[in-house]
Amino acid sequence: MTAGRVPGLAPAFLPAGPTALLVDLPGAAAGEAASLAAHVRAGSVAAGLSLLDVVPGAATVLLDGLDLPAELGAVRALVASWSPSRHGDVAPGRLVEVPVVYDGEDLADVAGAWGCSVEEVVARHTGAELVSAFCGFAPGFAYLTGLGSADPRRPGETTWPWSVPRRASPRPRVPAGSVALAGGWCGVYPTASPGGWQLIGRTDLDLWDVAADQPALLAPGTRVRFVAVR
Amino acid sequence: MSGLLVERVGGPVLVVDDGRPGWAHLGVPRSGPADPAAADLARRLVGAPGSALLEVVLGGLALRLRGPGRWVALTGAPAPLLVDGRARPVAEPVWAAPGARITLGHPPTGLRSWLALGGGVDVPAVLGSRSGDTLSGLGPRPLEVGQEVALLEDAGRPAPLDVPPPAGSGPLRLHPGPRPDWRGPDPRAHLARCAWEVAADSDRVGVRLAGPALPLTRTGELASEAVVLGAVQVPPSGTPVVFGPDHPTTGGYPVVAVVDPRDLPRLLQARPGEQVRFRRA
Fold this sequence. Notes:
The structure holds 2 protein chains of 2 kinds.
Chain A: E1 12-15, E2 20-24, H1 32-43, E3 53-56, E4 60-64, H2 72-80, E5 95-100, H3 107-114, H4 118-127, E6 130-135, E7 142-146, E8 171-174, E9 178-182, E10 185-188, E11 193-195, E12 198-202, E13 223-228
Parallel strand pairs in A: 5-13
Antiparallel strand pairs in A: 1-2, 2-4, 3-4, 6-7, 6-13, 8-11, 9-10, 9-12
Chain B: E1 3-8, E2 13-16, H1 36-45, E3 53-57, E4 61-66, E5 70-76, E6 81-83, E7 86-88, E8 94-96, E9 101-104, E10 112-117, E11 148-150, E12 172-176, H2 187-193, E13 196-198, E14 206-210, E15 225-226, E16 231-233, E17 241-243, E18 250-251, E19 255-259, H3 264-268, E20 275-276, E21 278-280
Parallel strand pairs in B: 12-21
Antiparallel strand pairs in B: 1-4, 1-11, 2-3, 3-10, 4-9, 5-8, 5-10, 6-7, 6-9, 12-19, 13-14, 13-20, 14-17, 15-18, 16-17, 16-19
């Protein structure tokens, strides 16, 4: 699903109200928006920007709290100083291993959708290196997708090429720690909430702790591997 | 204890302060008062700028003051304010003696009032804010009858005179949004052309507007992207939702316009059934 950036296709600056810009990254690879967001966050003070929030999406970064149009030039310069990371090294972020008991209620449905065994679903999920592309839906809920393959013989491939539809009817309550799939994304519910994703397992890891310096374990840019446990 | 006993609630009563800007990249809504200028005025009047105060929907609130007397001030929707049965002015500091009963009647206009108390409401701060967030559940939940609410020590001095925020009028100003071409050809012109009715299921997350649907000029799915306060999002139904302070940090439907932040409080003060109009900024 992530074909990599088309070389030469420059980021577009879309209007988002009087104090914000949405930087659009057409054809962004997994983790690229998070990479740009980290770059802007790190450089905003030196650039003299008044940013309140820097929020990556799947292929965009919202810059909110700007003094426009006065700061437009500094924003453009800061974004231009970011070099889109090349395939395979888009996310130099830290690696988090997530232990999972693969006993989700929808595991058989996912295997059915992919035409493979339950064991193969687990093998694919534990074999991929994922990256937190952005957070949304709930505090600490990370949208995880496959990093580009590090194998030079397989350029353009990602480690997570699989997709699965949402459930026809959402569950009113999904327990915290549920590991789930929908579309080309994987997510771990940080707190109990309603949810329509396919549940494949559960983890005991605390994904969200408001008392911690970094409240979200899987903040954008974090690399993630899932490890099967009993 | 020094604080309040909640004796009666009408509409939802939420503790708010300046919210949680800076955490949106982790999926944390900004939250905070629906009208920051009105909340600021109330807090300045009681000498507690930056403190946590109460956002009250459609009055109906009764509180009993515990501990020492306090200055209180009411702004926003002009709910009739009684202290120990005596009518008191809005947008002025009002003294409430020890044990006073403070009540808010039904406001003749508007939807939300802000009640500030000297010292400010003392609830545990979460990610640096005491605001209740109705979407994510961070911070305190809306107040319930019988609940005791702690107040911080009142060290401030009331401000006897202040300048109320100017009451805007006329159509709400619309700025361009990032995805106008999805609901084209000119979604701001469409929004400005007709009157929109505030729907009953509007809340702090979003104000839903009923009116002639915007045309779908692009179908398919938009990859999730971050949205701003005041964003006008148009789902496939074609009827817009304007995001309020507890809005989700990202959305998958196109944002075609953004309501000017100076005008957004007036939209959030509109009652279900009331009509609003827009114009280009």
